[in-house]
Write a structure and sequence with these properties.
Layout lengths: L1 E4 L3 H13 L4 E5 L4 H12 L1 H15 L6 H11 L11 E4 L5 H10 L4 E3 L7 H5 L5 E5 L7 E2 L2 H7 L7 E6 L9 E6 L10 H8 L2 H13 L13 E2 L4 H11 L3
Parallel strand pairs: 1-2, 1-4, 2-3, 4-5, 6-9
Antiparallel strand pairs: 5-7, 7-8
Helix pairs in contact: 1-8, 1-9, 2-3, 4-8
GO molecular function: transferase activity
Keywords: Transferase
Protein name: Formyl transferase
Length: 250
């Protein structure tokens, strides 16, 4: 199995859990996208004001990250998971899974299944070169909360029953592939935009393992959910502050 990720605590949780169940895992770790590229891409989709507002949220919220360390440690303990970088798993550094080097490295590994978590979207040309099942872990309930910050937006929308995570097949859309498994959680009042994804990930290692087991056994059974489908992004700073100050949703 090959895991493709840009790295971080949440991917490490899943990599450690998968490594405890499966013996042959290799990680392809992408370089993070630059903030300049992020802003330009968002501006093309949503306009410059919204794109800069989203960047401001990302910057401002970092100052509160240290205030959530106790809650983050509590989540890890509660679910018995580790966010430490797994020392015994081979990690190959790549610029992008979508460039020639990244695709060649993936092809050479000949995986039986590819598992994506917190990485770039696969371009159609990349996806077309992968003959095995490609799965993705998404910190949100599909199809209602595709994209980013699914847990946050579920709370903002008073939709607590759809605070959760999804493991799905990968197609050319944004979290639009067939759903394999979902899990749901109840966040604490101590949770914030920093710990929502951590909670969703820590509570969902079981569905990641089951999806990979199914893929290796040739027993994938994707399904669709008849619900409104929408792609979400980071909240712009004015919306983040409004929901935090007025509703306590940080």
């Amino acid at each position: 199995m090959v895991v493709v990720t840009a790295g971080g605590d949440n991917p490490n949780i899943l990599i450690n859990a998968l490594a405890a169940r499966f013996s042959d895992i290799v990680v392809l770790q992408e370089q993070p996208e630059s903030k300049a590229l992020f802003v330009r891409r968002r501006a093309r989709k949503l306009g410059w004001a919204t794109a800069l507002g989203q960047l401001a949220t990302m910057i401002a919220s970092r100052f509160g990250k240290r205030l959530t360390r106790r809650r983050a440690a509590e989540i890890l303990r509660s679910y018995g998971v580790s966010a430490d970088k797994p020392p015994s798993i081979p990690v190959h550094q790549i610029a992008s899974i979508n460039d020639a080097e990244g695709r060649a490295r993936l092809t050479a590994l000949q995986p039986a299944v590819v598992f994506l978590v917190s990485c770039r979207m696969l371009k159609p040309a990349t996806l077309a070169t992968i003959p095995c099942p490609v799965l993705n872990f998404h910190a949100g309930i599909n199809p209602q909360y595709r994209g980013l910050m699914g847990g946050y937006w579920a709370l903002v929308g008073n939709d607590l029953e759809n605070f959760g995570a999804t493991v799905h097949l990968v197609d050319e859309g944004v979290d639009t592939g067939g759903i394999l498994y979902q899990s749901r959680q109840i966040p604490s009042r101590a949770d914030t935009i920093h710990t929502y994804p951590l909670l969703q990930t820590a509570a969902s290692t079981d569905i990641a393992i089951r999806a990979v087991e199914d893929a290796l056994a040739g027993y994938l059974r994707p399904f669709d959910i008849a619900a409104p489908s929408r792609q979400w992004y980071h909240p712009p700073v004015w919306a983040w502050l409004w929901n935090g100050l007025r509703r306590g949703i940080w």
